[in-house]
From TrEMBL:
Annotated protein name in UniProt: RBR-type E3 ubiquitin transferase
One example of a Gene Ontology biological process annotation: protein ubiquitination
Repeat keyword on record: yes
Species for this entry: Craspedostauros australis
Keywords: Metal-binding, Repeat, Transferase, Ubl conjugation pathway, Zinc, Zinc-finger
The RING-type domain, residue ranges: 1-187
Length: 346
């Protein structure tokens, strides 16, 4: 560690400062070795800075590709909540967690994100085999490729509507069935034989539970990528929308950009709600039920906003998109606040 370099004298514990290091190198320098001396001093300064940043709990290098900026928190108190740990680089605009260096991951704790990514690496072959890029329509068995962000699927052949995540009938995801998105909850009974306590049965139940959360994590991760791609194309769609009305102004079509930005943010949060739920535990509790309710509501309206934003420009209803964007934002803030406050109801 450059910061703790001490005097080479055996009995001396004095730390070597940058001034002393510079004086030592320059004292023996000659015109022919000056360039080498300057290079060594530059290296020393670089190592000293890197050592300081990596050993300081309030600082972290920006993880952006090729970026050399450093994020610095003013105090430890600034890093107490998960949301406060998130920052965005002023140079490359990369958003990241100052504590762990990962992408923003609210409502998950840093340790759970690390555990989840390690687990996903270990289980990747199994998960990737199950999560193929195409699925069969549950009614006519035609192969269907998912090429948009919304999880409400309609078979092009038989017109059957179903959920891409759980493959259940979309009619069973309506409010009239007692909940829009009941497939967000893991039911241990579906794994079969909870009374079977053999090692093989327990392993299967644990794998089923992991895959339940991983599939939903993966689905929102893919939907987030699609939403980001759609956001890049939004300006062109805004131009078309503006030109479709003779007296329309740019401000009148900005709702489309706001909706897509909201979709990106919500997909990102939803992705990590499944990591949070996985480590919350399998045992039922009132807190878990309330968390799944908040998750369900956010998922419900995110899917609605996704469908609205993917409509052809001519078929868009500005008022409906604006109102749904506001509702989605409120539900996203609700679930983050609920976790931040220790999952205690007001």
């Amino acid at each position: 560690c450059v910061e703790t370099t001490t005097c080479p004298q055996a009995s001396c514990n004095e730390l070597v400062t940058e001034v002393e290091m510079e004086a030592s190198l320059k004292s023996g320098a000659t015109p022919s070795t000056q360039a080498r001396t300057d290079k060594l001093l530059q290296k020393y300064s670089t190592y000293q800075l890197r050592s300081f940043v990596e050993s300081n709990r309030l600082t972290r290098w920006c993880p952006g590709k090729g970026c050399e900026f450093v994020a610095c928190a003013s105090s430890q108190a600034c890093l107490e909540t998960i949301q406060d740990r998130t920052t965005q680089c002023h140079s490359c605009t990369t958003a990241f967690c100052v504590v762990c260096g990962e992408e923003p991951h609210a409502p998950c704790a840093c340790k759970d994100v690390t555990r989840w990514k390690d687990k996903c690496r270990n289980e990747s072959e199994t998960a990737n085999w199950i999560l193929a890029n195409t699925k069969s329509c549950p009614k006519c068995v035609s192969r269907i490729e998912k090429n948009q962000g919304c999880n409400h699927m309609t078979c092009g052949r038989c017109k059957h509507e179903f959920c891409w995540i759980c493959m259940g009938d979309w009619n069973n995801h309506g409010a009239n069935t007692g909940g829009y998105y009941k497939c967000n909850k893991f039911d241990s009974k579906t794994g079969g034989g909870v009374e079977d306590q053999s090692e093989a049965a327990r392993a299967k139940r644990e794998l089923d539970r992991y895959l339940h959360y991983y599939k939903r994590y993966h689905a929102h991760d893919e939907a987030e990528k699609f939403a980001r791609k759609q956001l890049q194309e939004t300006e062109a769609r805004m131009v078309i929308l503006q030109e479709s009305s003779s007296n329309s102004k740019w401000a009148d079509v900005e709702f489309l950009k706001a909706a897509n930005e909201q979709l990106v943010e919500c997909r990102h949060v939803l992705k990590y709600t499944y990591v949070y739920a996985y480590y919350f535990g399998a045992s039922p509790s009132m807190q878990k039920e309330r968390f799944e309710y908040h998750q369900e509501m956010l998922e419900r309206f995110t899917e609605t906003l996704s469908e609205l934003s993917e409509k052809p420009v001519a078929a868009m209803d500005r008022t409906e998109v604006v109102n749904t964007t506001r509702v989605v934002d409120r539900f996203m803030r609700n679930i983050l606040k609920y976790v931040e406050e220790g999952m205690e109801e007001a």
